[in-house]
Amino acid sequence: MLSYIARRLALMVPTLFGILLISFVIVQFAPGGPVERVISQLQNPNSGASDRVGGGSGGDAGTQSADSSYRGAQGLDPAFIKELEKQFGFDKPAPERFWKMLGDYVRFDFGRSYFRDAPVLQLIKEKLPVSISLGLWMTLLSYAISIPLGIRKAVKDGSRFDTWTSAVVIVGYAIPGFLFAILLIVLFAGGSFWQVFPLRGLYSDNFSELSFFGKIADYLWHIALPVTAMALGAFATSTLLTKNSFLDEIRKQYVLTARMKGLSERGVLYGHVFRNAMLIVIAGFPGAFVHALFAGSLLIETIFSLDGLGLLSFEAIVNRDYPVVFANLYIFSLIGLVVHLITDLTYTWVDPRIDFETRET
């Protein structure tokens, strides 16, 4: 097992290198950039461009440096444009910027945001609790509902209960999470019906004045609608996964043998089937959490005005804030690779019979 872990860790290095290299090359050909954005803002203050220009060239990455061919550069002093290029680190050739970025990232030095005037790592730390709250509660809620429901559906396979719950699950999976979030707002957040839940944020304005249990209640009150909206699709997927996993095990020979020995259905289900059937469900928990944390929260964060990693990444892309973009890409990719390894190790923990030593990496 140790040799397998070592091989997987070693493969992470070229994988991360390839991800960053391909992304960096694509960005070189992307239109616009932070320099052109600043020039556009200077010549048209009402253009909507960010008016916060951060200093520092840490985490140098971005498009080709600006020149006088920029449409917004007309009428500006070329020396001023060169100074902007130097400020953003675009006065150096692209290969040099890329290798500097790699060296900085190895030390987890992501530089400063171009337009927020703050260290990138600090921004990520500030937004991380919001995304963790959404991802963790969404994953726990979907598993808490889908596992018992999936087991029940497997036991009652083909019954009326299985049929109508399957219809509900399929409809839930087909509804986009952001559309369900809007529906929840209309119904329960003062849209056209009831004002039951708050519309935005994770805390009330008087959160610091509340008691300990009052803070918990206030937090759960604010997180209820976003988590419910996010859990809809994941709930459907994990329910069908649980059902199919249990059905596969129930139809195996060892289950028939256990029944012939006189064991009750409950004893067969939870004494023999449960451990084997739950293998794939439990092992998928780390991946489900990471997916919810980094991929599933962008629209929900935007709709409910939750300042998390999803919203930070989106705004960084729109504003061409490349240090934030590449830092998020690097961290998300690294966490994804580590979680994939943890998932494999979870398989061996749930079922020691699985041996990855003989598996080709």
TrEMBL record:
Subcellular location(s) of the protein: Cell inner membrane; Cell membrane
PROSITE patterns tied to this protein: ABC_TM1
Family annotation (Pfam families): BPD_transp_1 (PF00528)
GO cellular component, one term: plasma membrane
Region (Disordered): 45-69
Keywords of this entry: Cell inner membrane, Cell membrane, Membrane, Transmembrane, Transmembrane helix, Transport
PANTHER family: INNER MEMBRANE ABC TRANSPORTER (PTHR30465), INNER MEMBRANE ABC TRANSPORTER PERMEASE PROTEIN YEJB (PTHR30465:SF66)
Similarity field: Belongs to the binding-protein-dependent transport system permease family.
Protein name as catalogued: Microcin ABC transporter permease
Native source species: Bosea vaviloviae
